[in-house]
Design goal:
Layout lengths: L11 E5 L3 H13 L3 E5 L2 H10 L4 E5 L7 H12 L5 E6 L4 H10 L3 E4 L4 H37 L14
Parallel strand pairs: 1-2, 1-3, 3-4, 4-5
Helix pairs in contact: 2-3, 3-4
């Protein structure tokens, strides 16, 4: 399995679009919002970037030459499973079949072009907040499992147990 994120102070967003102007516009806007931005121009380049540094969120164009965004999304889901970054599909395709295909491939959300910046900014913010809360929840569950195992091995160490010799 590829490497998983290390702790970072700023969320990293990977912008994947075959149109350079779209990458530049999104990159500038997201950098101004305080995010680290990485760019790729194809689905294959997206996978390569993710093997180097798994981002927190991927903004993925649906229509690109070679591997399209829907197939790239499905590939990312297959590789990383429940540790896959959030994927927000950005596309001019607004038909119901495209929306269904994006979510079936594992997309977290879907935004149509032309991009309405206020909508995209709020969706990015919400997705990253949700991902952060889910990571905290996963960590708490792991701690509970560890404590449960320790208590099963050493029930005498359970805090607050009664010392029956004092009764």
């Amino acid at each position: 399995m590829p490497p998983i994120n290390q702790q970072r102070s700023q969320p990293t967003i990977l912008i994947v679009d075959d149109e350079r102007n779209v990458r530049l516009m999104l990159g500038r806007a997201l950098t101004n919002e305080g995010y680290q931005v990485v760019e790729a121009s194809t689905g294959d380049a997206c996978l390569a970037v993710c093997y180097q540094q798994l981002p927190d969120l991927i903004l993925l164009d649906a229509v690109m030459p070679g591997m399209d965004g829907m197939n790239c999304c499905a590939e990312l889901q297959q590789i990383w499973g429940d540790r896959c970054p959030a994927i927000l599909i950005i596309t001019a395709l607004a038909d119901p079949q495209s929306v269904d295909r994006a979510f079936e491939a594992g997309a977290t959300d879907f935004v149509t072009k032309p991009i309405h910046w206020a909508v995209l900014r709020q969706r990015v913010k919400r997705i990253l907040q949700t991902r952060s809360l889910m990571a905290e929840l996963r960590q708490a569950q792991e701690q509970i499992e560890q404590l449960t195992q320790q208590l099963e091995l050493h029930p005498e160490k359970l805090p607050g147990t009664l010392d029956t010799g004092c009764l």
